[in-house]
Amino acid sequence: MALIRSKNHLLVIKLLLHVTCLTPAVWMFWLGATDMLGADPVKALIHFYGIGSIHCLFATLAVSPAIRWTKTPALLQVRRMLGLYAAFYASMHIICFVVFEWQLQWLEIGKEIIKRPYITVGMVTWVLLAILSFTSFKRAQRALGKRWGQVHALVYPLLVLALVHFYWSQKSPLNEAILYGMLGVSLLAWRQNKLFIWFEFFRSSKHTKTMHR
Q1: Which of 47, 79, 81, 205 could be a cystine partner for 63, CB 3.0 to 4.6 Å?
Q2: Gyration radius (Cα) of the chain, Å
């Protein structure tokens, strides 16, 4: 049975999602500003926003299964919003790292990115999220044409990289990392056909480039 029967229902769902996604971010920042995050508030902020990004990414990828189970195609209209919140939380994660942890010492930040693989993976993940965010609007869809879907299939390796970064950072218990990994595998398994098509496309593209050299 469809969950959304009118535009008003959709507006209510969007409003609830905005509140759900924004409230924790604002609340956590306020706790940090008022020195209520314990002995190491910077690490707490960095970890919180990183986890928040993964949560939003999970929610984004859960939209398609939810549409099928609830027979509510209108839910597709919230997927981009959730994806943008994933990028927002990831950006806050980066900002806290760059501004609070390293105080804009760009040379040292560059060294850390090169020296520490988990930071390298995290930066690559953020760049991919930024690409998907900037190309999520209708103008980008028209400009990219058929390639738009292929570009946005990057969300699958992006999820893998995000989970690798999460596990590698060792800022959470192992059982928590395993739980997140299982959720990620479940969401990817749901899209195994799309994953196969995506890998075949990039393999054929690489083969075509090799043939034209």
Answers
A1: 79
A2: 19
- CA dist., res. 3 & res. 108, Å (int): 50
pLDDT tens string, the chain, 213 residues long: the values are: 455 556 778 888 899 999 999 999 999 989 988 888 888 889 899 999 999 999 999 999 999 888 888 877 878 889 999 999 999 999 999 999 999 988 899 999 999 999 999 999 999 999 999 999 999 888 888 888 888 887 888 888 899 999 999 988 865 566 777 888 889 888 888 766 655 555 555 555 554 544 445
Domain coordinates of the chain in residue numbers?
Answer: 7-211
Helix (H, G, I), strand (E, B) or coil at 23: helix
- The number of angstroms, rounded, from the C-alpha of 129 to the middle of its chain's C-alpha atoms is 6
Euclidean distance between CA atoms 105 and 34, whole angstroms: 25
